[in-house]
């Protein structure tokens, strides 16, 4: 493990979000490494990443990749929930200066915090449609950002963190959004129904919202009651308004995972809401129903692919 100063940033998980954030920090002149599994680390070090965006230019990012978090670094965690346990193991022995997590969901923040007593760990959200392809191919992996939206929201008390200050040097819009619970729930309250409904019905959100009106209304009411109990007052009607405002064709990354035969972030998104509902003794039969249906659908598709 090599040492580095606190001004260096280590991005764990150079996928869509981690690759984009690392490339943007590097382009803004920051000292950044990505932390990846051995194969990915070799590939990134050898080829770098090619970044293509509609709004922020396109460039080659000659990133350095390592397999351990450099001691004392500021850390951005950008794995998916499936990689969280490994990310925690990577970060916990590195005495990081601070950790900012960009995953969707809630529970990852508790897992990181439990492993890093005394370290500033912050849950933040990122919005922006990004995909990484071509890792392991003959040339650089490609990070593709579509559209104009690229925004990180951090809790008010994280505005002065080193990572957050560095992100302000990039084209990423950086906002503060209240407490950490408010930041995470303001996203999860609409992300969860978007992900669960599109994954259940295998359609865009427009059709998914109208396939079963009772189920949709019940689900939104359960999620709204849970968000309200967690400190973000909202109603099912408000959530319906947010979802109706999305393009009808919008799909979710959970849906893509389910349609590839695995459950992806089902537990990190839907399971997390279900657990918080239980904490507040909020009955959640619609959530239970959809969590079961989606797991079943993923298993069936997965089994079909293997047959
Ligand atoms: N993509 C978006 O548009 C978007 C938007 C908002 C929020 N988010 C959220 O951001 C988070 C990251 O999503 P993403 O789309 O960037 O995912 P992704 O493209 O799949 O990237 C995940 C990264 O984590 C790495 N990883 C996985 N397991 C690992 C492990 N055990 N050890 C180290 N690295 C590991 C992957 O490694 P390899 O490189 O080896 O595959 C990959 O680099 C998710 O919580 C997602 O919900 C995504």
UniProtKB/TrEMBL annotation:
Residues 183-293 form the Ketopantoate reductase C-terminal domain. Signal peptide: none annotated. InterPro entries: 6-PGluconate_DH-like_C_sf, 6PGD_dom2, KPA_reductase, KPR-Related, KPR_N, NAD(P)-bd_dom_sf. It comes from the Bacteria. GO terms for cellular component: cytoplasm. The lineage of its organism: Bacteria, Bacillati, Actinomycetota, Actinomycetes, Micrococcales. Residues 10-147 form the Ketopantoate reductase N-terminal domain. This is 2-dehydropantoate 2-reductase.
């Amino acid at each position: 493990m090599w040492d580095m100063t606190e001004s260096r940033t280590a991005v764990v998980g150079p996928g869509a979000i981690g690759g984009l954030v690392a490339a943007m920090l590097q382009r803004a002149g920051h000292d950044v490494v990505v932390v990846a599994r051995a194969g990915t680390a070799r590939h990134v070090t050898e080829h770098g990443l090619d970044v293509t965006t509609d709004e922020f230019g396109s460039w080659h990012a000659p990133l350095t990749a390592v397999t351990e978090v450099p001691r004392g670094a500021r850390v951005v965690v950008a794995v998916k929930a499936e990689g969280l346990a490994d990310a925690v193991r990577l970060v916990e022995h590195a005495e990081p200066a601070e950790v900012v997590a960009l995953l969707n969901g809630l529970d990852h923040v508790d897992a990181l915090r439990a492993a890093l007593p005394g370290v500033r760990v912050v849950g933040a959200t990122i919005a922006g449609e990004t995909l990484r392809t071509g890792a392991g191919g003959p040339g650089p992996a490609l990070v593709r950002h579509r559209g104009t939206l690229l925004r990180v929201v951090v809790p008010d008390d994280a505005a002065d963190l080193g990572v957050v200050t560095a992100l302000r040097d990039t084209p990423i819009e950086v906002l503060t959004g209240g407490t950490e619970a408010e930041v995470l729930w303001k996203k999860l309250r609409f992300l969860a129904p978007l992900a669960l409904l599109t994954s259940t019905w295998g359609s865009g959100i427009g059709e998914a919202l109208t396939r079963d009106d009772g189920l949709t209304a019940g689900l939104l009411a359960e999620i709204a009651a849970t968000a309200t109990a967690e400190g973000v007052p909202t109603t099912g009607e408000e959530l319906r308004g947010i979802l109706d405002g999305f393009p009808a064709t919008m799909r979710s990354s959970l849906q893509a995972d389910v349609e590839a035969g695995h459950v992806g972030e089902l537990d990190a998104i839907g399971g997390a809401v279900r657990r918080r509902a239980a904490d507040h003794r909020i009955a959640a039969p619609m959530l239970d129903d959809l969590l079961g249906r989606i797991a079943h659908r993923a298993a069936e598709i997965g089994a079909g692919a293997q047959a």
